[in-house]
Amino acid sequence: MKQNPKNRRKRNPANTGILVSTYIFLAVFLGLIGYMIYFQVVKADDVINNSYNKRQSILAEKIARGSIISADGNIIATTVEDENGKNVRYYPYNNLFAHVTGYINNGGYGLEASAGYYMLTSNQNLFEQIANDLSGEKNHGDNLITTLDSGLQQAAYDALGSDRGAVIITEPSTGKILAMVSKPDFNPNTIAADWSSVTAEGSDSVLINRATQGLYPPGSTFKIVTLLEYLRENPDNYKDYSYECKGSIDVSGKSISCSHGTVHGVQDTKMSFANSCNTSFINMGLTLNIDSYAKTAKDMLFNSELPVPMEYNKSQFVLDDKSSEWDIAQTAFGQGETLITPMHLSLITSAIANDGMLMTPYVMQKVESVNGLTVKTFKGEEYGKLLTADEAAILQEDMGAVVTTSFDWLFKDISYTVAGKSGTAQYGTQGYEHSFFTSFSPAEDAKISVTVLIEGGPQRTQSGAEAAKKIYDYYYSR
Amino acid sequence: MATILINLSKYILIFLMLFYTFFGFLMMRVKDADKLKRRAVVQNVIMFVIFTICSVTCMYYKWSVNTLVFFLLEFVYLILFIVLYRLIYLDCSIQIVNNMSMLMMLGFVMVERLAPSSAFKQFIIVLIGTVIGFFVPRFMRKRHVIVKMKYLFAVIGILMLGVTLVLGKTTWGAQISVDIAGFSFQPSEFVKLIYVLFVAAMLWRARTFGKVVASAAIAALHVLILVASNDLGTALIFFVVYIVMLYVGTGKIRYLIAGLLAGSGAAVFAYKVFSHVRTRVYAWRDPWSIIDKGGYQITQSLFAIGTGGLFGMGLYQGLPNTIPVAVKDFVFAAMSEEFGMIFAICVILICFSSYMSMMRVATRSRDIFYKLVAVGFSTMYIFQCFLTIGGVTKFIPSTGVTLPFVSYGGSSILCSILMFAIVQAVFILVKENEGDEAESKEPKKA
User: Fold this and answer.
1) Which domain holds residue A345?
2) B312 Cβ contact partners less than 8 Å away, ≥ 6 residues apart
3) Which of A339, B209, B410, B413 lies in disulfide reach of A316, CB 3.0 to 4.6 Å?
């Protein structure tokens, strides 16, 4: 190698400093560029999927929105060309998945809105993308694989029949939402044209997802929370609890009676729960420490944000240390001002079924490029323990007793076991009742959880438990 | 058809930009002056092709005669700039001139794209800056005068920053500008220039501990006033520039380490004491939880960058104006959205290669004063690039500084042009000096 004599000269110390600082900045900039590439390749898809990002419509001009696909591979929503060659969204199942998939126009709703950017991002082969750009073709957006099971969705839809209400089916061990139905519903294929009629004053509010947004009095399903609080306050002697039900109880000078005036006789906690004995629960409720009761309700996510990946309403529990005896009594057996969404009830049941651990519910399973490459996988995440495994075990057993005691007439001659809790709550003055049933099966080791709400009214044809039975029959017959 | 052409131009722009960037790095190794000049012309041609494609696209989307006239004027300006600069600054660094014109060109395009009503003002300020720049070599020759004026520089600098702190109007939570005769003026940009001259004059000869302490105290005063004005970006720049100049000037690495430690301590202190510092850090750590408030700007910036992807949305195809002050501090995010990340990384590399060229000028200077001046301005430049790019990409907390030459902002542009002009002046002096040496050695050899 040729040696330049100048280079042999000892380097000026100041130049060493220049060299060192240049290398420091070089390292800093390499870090910056590396971070930017990491951001773009790994993080960007998640980051841009945000309602504050106003670029959906721009992306839609360049990218044909990807499909929404059920876990069993059926296309729920896809992009097709209409007769003018314009891209339009097509929903092969019409109303079936309406509230989960939602719609694009009129502000967007459901997965179409919340997962829009995934479907408007193309991870198609880069060369194909460039070729499409240059030929004026749109790129194919990525496909969204959901956790929805189209068989269960159909079964849930059919089970509701002509009734108004909602069904949520989940897998408690993972948090997967297997089915979600709300009725009355709408057809996403024609929603743009139907918009003014479905939003008109006095319409049936078909756009509302009753599963997550409908707030209903929980009725006797709230006894789950009251019982849990009683167990927490009496961990060692709850088994000694005994109360003689005479069919009614006086509270603040007024009489409250058990459903149909039934006299249940001597009851322990388990039988009180299995028989859904109102008077016994009022008796339990009036012994409770209200602050602690409110805290348990809070643990069960009342008055709290829910880890639900779609539009929802917060449930409400109103007792505090200023509440009257009457209000406490009403709340204890599920009346009063308590309100809950079917989704929230499903979360509580799922947590009980999963030994106390609530798995964050999710409906997006995977994002795949049109070439079939996995772009992103969503996994079940632990949200947190709502109750201890011991508490969950007691409630599991007691919910099993509900079905064998109070619903033996319905769940008879079946090859499977179910644990659950029903709840009916009167509303208005005409004696109409909403009917809840929240459950899991098998009772010993839950695989699925089914929560049903049937809205009360003159059109109501069945109870929540009856609809749930149809779903379990389908589930175990396939 | 038009969309296909626009899409095609998107890829052509990326390709040209990659070519320009890597060609620039290859040019660093070329020693032969004529060869270098020929290569420089290739770079210039690429730059003008990029400019033409961008301006045609702009006119396609927003046609007006004014825009056409305006782009033509800018085109002529860039040609004159490249030619005149070489004529007036005989022996200037060609790479620096080319990169400067490239970045200014991108600035013209981005201002036209994002804030067309400000484009004319931007252009006028570039013209003024260029003309002033032509006098810089004369001024820089007078080292003895500059060195004598050092305390005057310090007093002026501190006064100007102090006045801004007291009278300045608040923009985006920082007091950084004052209005003079209807023009919004950022004194800190001007102070940047005299600050580097001051530090160089303090450190170039007497490197006693006493001198170091005196210079450090005065530099610290600058930084403190800036922190109090909530101009955290500029405060950091002043701090880092001082530490690097001190290290290069004394050659003692312990000053560098002590400086960085002191800086970290001061940063923690500032975090604890000033709520506006904490606000920036919160907005950086988790902007999503305060997306309506403190996190709005940075999240909008990330949406722009993320949606743009590697290849960009294409000029006029994105929504860069959803980012507040996109044309100033967040211009890099806007560029990344429409031109894509590959293009944006090329811009970073161009900035870095400009820095390397300037540091090279510093190594060649035998005169410690000029060496320090070149080191000071190169560091100032590259650190500012780092702050703005790192800030808009959420690599570091956002500090609200501009991207030199590209961002809109009169004071910023003016200061950037003069900074580069000063380094060019140093380069001219270095070359003269080397020429003298060569001449004085020549007879001995014979």
Assistant:
1) 152-185+207-238+289-362+383-477
2) B10, B14, B318, B336, B337, B338, B339, B340, B341, B343
3) A339
